[in-house]
Design goal:
The protein is α/β, with parallel strands linked by helices and 810 residues long. It is 48% helix and 16% strand. Helix 1 packs across helix 2, helix 17 (461-478) crosses helix 18 and helix 18 (485-499) runs parallel beside helix 20 (533-547).
Length: 810
């Protein structure tokens, strides 16, 4: 089998040709940012934003940094600008049930107008009522009514008084009011004088007094009835005067809002209530300035005044022609979503009224779009259920966590629900979307549109140009130094490295934008006029230097001999694997020594990491696959009777992933065959039971990690890395590694099978079975088969009765 050809430096990194750009600097390009590489997601977003059927809300899923939020907001804003402005909504006092404020829906912009009109109406009412009731005409009519009552009552009392006097009695005043008492010479007798009268005279006097007292009581009752009638007549006069004073004012407003039935009805109730409570206006006529105070301030000063009930609480308002709202709520608590009824403390109690009903994000976005971060909604108590409840019922009513937890027991309001017509867009990770879709039935009914943002896009001439426009837009909008075509090409190459694919570009524009900013910063530090390739490379270098302290410490430990890694020579059953060590925003390619030992014992492979519970499930699966490969290749005639131990040396964290499976198999074959492995080559790659090498992730970091180790220990010109052939398209290596490959100081070998890799590591042919099923002498596979045959024979000898069966058979 011919050895695999090593990669050229051109294969190790794709180069972006700056000559394809038709601009001198990015300053010549437009400043507008257009969506790049997310056509699938944008089509779904466009569909979800336009469809009006129930339940077609949107979930925008994708990793952070893919532009989910900015693209969603930009598209929704463009659509909202073309939509009509939604209706205004106000809360007003409910004269039938003050605890349930009424909701009024008005055309866009009329909420503020109604607020001003009601405020002006109350001012005019104050003025007109004061003028009408302070006038001479009202005073004369009122005095006339009262005078008639007083004259009639006085006349009756005078006639009765004469009658009492003629009967020898007098009218006096007792604890319970007027009484009839015995009299002498027109004066009420004292008790002593009354007792000195003869018995017969006292009895006759008592009889007359009793009759007169009953008559007086009847006169007093008629007087009370007459007084009540007089008060009613005065009240009717007051209502008549009040209606005359304000009727025209209210009628003018009703004509203005004649097309809005709810407003006309409310104005009728306002008029009737003002007339019924006209005395309150007369009492407060001397305090016009107090009416200008805000409700909370008035409540701090004292209880609600009657005038407050005629106010208007504009929950939300829009200007005609301004389009629909787009609301991005960053703190979606239940109160911030659905609104709240606020309270203030007054004399030890919490009080409120309809003017303290505060809108939430659902109110503000009604008629438009509401954008929320899914994780934020789910982590706020009761917010997710409140959101679903509002969407399912198509109406929103203020809710508070206080009501759910019963933290405060106080009288509150229950405002009338408001009809809800809003499109909700949730932004979250793919994992969160699939968890909700699987475990929340309401989610599947309410969020039927999936806008899936990917992390890669196909590389083409168009997408490369779009990268250039993205760089230009960032420079225009943030006032950054503009880029040359070479500088843009370097940014595009960085996008390909993020994507880890020659044919793809990354859509993680958060990181691309950071590179643009940092390259512009270093350009300005150097005093250059334009950002070029050197500035982009320096930005990348500085970014690595800020994050690779742990990597440098690992290299120091290798140099000191604390971590044992060989980069020269050959060792039996030992190979250099490469793992990835994530460090937040930086990933380290860390070489690790993998060893295998074979011996007589219980047949099978002993995975040391799995035995001590340091092996993840995927790594354990990869190790178990090796058993299938060995069994198919070497145990078709007799069972395997050899015990093999595999271990990652000096690795104390969990080992996960199957990218070391090929390296483990190479170490295992070396131990069984007795053929040492080259230590100047590191290995990465997954393997299947057929011995085919499969692609792995993070191949660039792994190669660079072993290169850094070899550079530290000194490059010999023979060192390199064996990678899966399927990973060649993923190579976007750092310039330093590419230059070493070009100079022949470092090598990268792509392999497709285990046999290709073992030949590279040992310099010995792997060997293929002939027609008789035997491996050629001197090959790796022949040596392994021979070792396993010896182990099987030894295993049989050590079984009870094994030697006797052998002797008897001879």
């Amino acid at each position: 089998m011919p050895l695999p050809r090593e990669l050229t430096s051109e294969q190790c990194r794709w180069r972006c040709d700056a000559s394809q750009f038709d601009f001198g600097t990015t300053q010549e390009l437009p400043a507008e940012i257009v969506p790049i590489g997310q056509q699938r997601a944008m089509n779904a977003l466009d569909f979800g934003a336009d469809i009006q059927s129930e339940g077609y809300n949107i979930f925008a899923l994708g990793p952070p940094g893919t532009g989910r939020t900015s693209l969603v907001l930009e598209m929704l804003q463009r659509k909202a600008d073309e939509m009509p402005a939604p209706s205004d909504c106000c809360y007003v006092y409910n004269f039938d049930d003050p605890r349930c404020p009424r909701a009024l829906e008005l055309p866009a912009g009329m909420g503020a107008t109604l607020l001003d009109d009601l405020h002006e109406l109350i001012e005019d009412v104050d003025r007109e009522i004061t003028r009408s009731f302070d006038g001479d005409e009202y005073s004369e009519r009122r005095d006339e009514l009262l005078r008639e009552f007083r004259e009639a009552r006085n006349k009756e009392l005078q006639a009765f008084e004469r009658e009492v006097q003629e009967a020898g009695l007098a009218i006096g005043r007792g604890p319970a009011g007027l009484i009839v008492a015995p009299a002498k010479d027109g004066e009420v007798m004292s008790p002593q004088e009354y007792q000195q009268l003869p018995q017969e005279e006292r009895e006759a006097l008592d009889q007359r007094r009793q009759e007169m007292q009953e008559k007086l009581d009847e006169i007093m009752r008629r007087g009370q009835r007459a007084e009540k009638q007089a008060r009613q007549k005065v009240a009717e006069l007051d209502r008549e005067v009040a209606l005359y004073a304000i009727g025209g004012l209210v009628k003018d407003l009703q004509e203005k809002y004649a097309e809005i039935e709810q407003v006309v009805e409310h104005l009728n109730q306002v008029r009737d209530d003002i007339i019924a409570n006209v005395d309150a206006f007369r009492e407060e006529a001397d305090e016009p300035a107090a009416e200008q105070l805000a409700v909370p301030q008035r409540m701090l000063e004292g209880p609600h005044r009657p005038h407050d009930r005629y106010r208007v609480n504009v929950v939300w308002s829009h200007k005609e022609g301004e389009g629909a709202p787009v609301v991005f709520e960053t703190n979606p608590t239940i109160e911030n979503l659905t609104g709240d009824v606020e309270h203030v403390a007054y004399m030890g109690a919490l009080v409120t009224d309809f003017t303290m009903v505060k809108p939430g994000a659902l109110h503000r976005a009604n008629g438009g779009y509401l954008v929320l971060e899914a994780l934020s909604v789910l982590t706020k108590p009761y917010a997710w259920e409140a959101l679903k409840r509002a969407l399912k019922s198509a109406q929103v009513c203020p809710e508070s966590i206080r009501e759910h937890l019963r933290l405060v027991s106080t009288v509150t309001l229950q405002p009338e629900p408001i009809a809800l017509n809003v499109k909700v867009v949730l932004i979250g990770s793919p994992l969160l979307y699939y968890l909700l879709h699987e475990h929340d039935e309401d989610f599947r009914k309410l969020f039927k549109v999936k806008s899936d943002f990917g992390v890669q896009m196909d590389r083409s001439a168009e997408t490369v140009e779009e990268y250039g426009r993205f760089v230009a837009a960032r420079c225009h909008q943030e006032g950054l130094t503009h880029f040359t075509p070479d500088g843009v090409a370097a940014v595009v190459e960085y996008g390909a490295r993020l994507a880890e694919d020659h044919e793809k570009l990354s859509t993680r524009f958060l990181e691309v934008a950071d590179l643009v900013r940092e390259a512009a910063f270093w350009c300005s530090k150097e005093g250059a006029d334009l950002v070029g390739t050197g500035h982009v490379q320096r930005a990348l270098k500085e970014s690595i230097q800020r994050s690779n302290r742990i990597e440098e410490r690992l290299l120091e430990m290798i140099e000191e001999g604390t971590l044992l890694i060989d980069t020269t020579g050959q060792v039996l059953g030992q190979v250099n694997g490469i793992s990835l060590l994530p460090l937040g925003d930086y990933v380290v390619g860390k070489p690790s020594r993998i060893t295998a030992r074979s011996y007589l014992g219980k047949p099978g492979i002993l995975n040391v990491e799995r035995e001590v519970e340091l092996s993840g499930p995927i790594h354990s699966k990869g190790t178990m696959i090796l058993t299938g490969f060995l069994g198919e290749r070497f145990a078709t005639r007799e069972p395997m009777s050899c015990s093999i131990s595999l271990a990652f040396e000096q690795v104390y964290e969990e080992v996960e992933g199957d990218s070391a499976a090929s390296a483990e198999l190479y170490a295992l074959l070396s131990s069984l065959s007795g053929m040492p492995l080259r230590q100047d080559l590191a290995v990465t790659g997954s393997v299947n039971q057929h011995g085919q090498i499969q692609a792995v992730g993070g191949v660039n970091r792994k190669i660079e990690g072993f290169f850094a180790t070899c550079k530290l220990m000194s490059l010999t010109g023979a060192q390199g890395v064996i990678i899966p052939a399927a990973n060649v398209r993923n190579l976007m290596l750092r310039q330093e590694v590419v230059e070493a490959v070009a100079a022949g100081r470092f090598h990268i070998y792509p392999v497709e099978t285990i046999d290709e890799g073992i030949e590279l590591l040992t310099g010995v042919a792997a060997g293929q079975r002939d027609e008789e099923g035997e491996f050629p002498e001197g090959t790796i596979n022949a040596a392994v088969a021979a070792r396993l045959a010896e182990a099987a024979e030894a295993h049989r000898k050590h079984q009870p009765g094994g030697e006797r069966r052998e002797a008897g058979s001879g």
